[in-house]
Structures are given as C-alpha cells and as structure tokens.
Give the backbone structure.
Amino acid sequence: MHNTDILEVAQRWAGENRKLALATVIETWGSAPRPEGSRLVVDADGHFEGSVSGGCVETAVIETALEVIRNGKPRVLEFGVSNERAWEVGLACGGRIQVYVEPVESASVAPGERRN
C-alpha cells in the first residue's frame, strides 16, 4: 500500500469519527526496512493499515500509537541494533529508524501534517 493510500485511509477513518494516530518514518540510518516517509495509521480499536518497518517493529509502534490516541501527546520513537527494545521487537537489519507518532484529531486536519 502506498503512502497516499495510507493518508486516504486516515482521512476516511477520521471522517468516520474514529480516534487515530499516524506513525511516519522521519529518519533512517544505514540499512532500514522502510524508507523515510513510510506511514502506518492506527485506530483506537487497534486496527491498522500501512507499515513503518516491514513488520519488525510494528507491534511496538502500534502500542505507542494507542497510547498517543489516549493521551493526545505525540512521540518520537527510535529503533536500532544498539537499542535493546529494537532487538526485542526484531529490528536486526543493521540500521536505525526514527518514527514520529502523532494523534489525528479530525477529518479537517491533514494526516502527517505536524502541528506546533
């Protein structure tokens, strides 16, 4: 699924008044499973579309997205081979990724748009 498709899913789900979080790969170093700009959208029931890591850290990102939905506070996650949590969740590709997880508050807000 392409990133534009993920944004369309996010827009549709937001239009259905679902509470959402959007995760976006904002930086990569070395060998990374997905490129910068890769996205994953998660709703409050744990449904998700997209990928930020090809599956190796998705569970941890989804758990964080559910927390972001509950508290409304964006988070930046970093996974890499030197990160103990990354080994737990399986990011052993030799690189690192940084993922921005933000709440999506309504259909009128463009998903992926950073707010101050």
In short: Residues 111-116 have pLDDT under 50 and may be disordered. Residues 3-104 form one domain. The chain has three helices and five strands. The chain has one domain: 3-104.
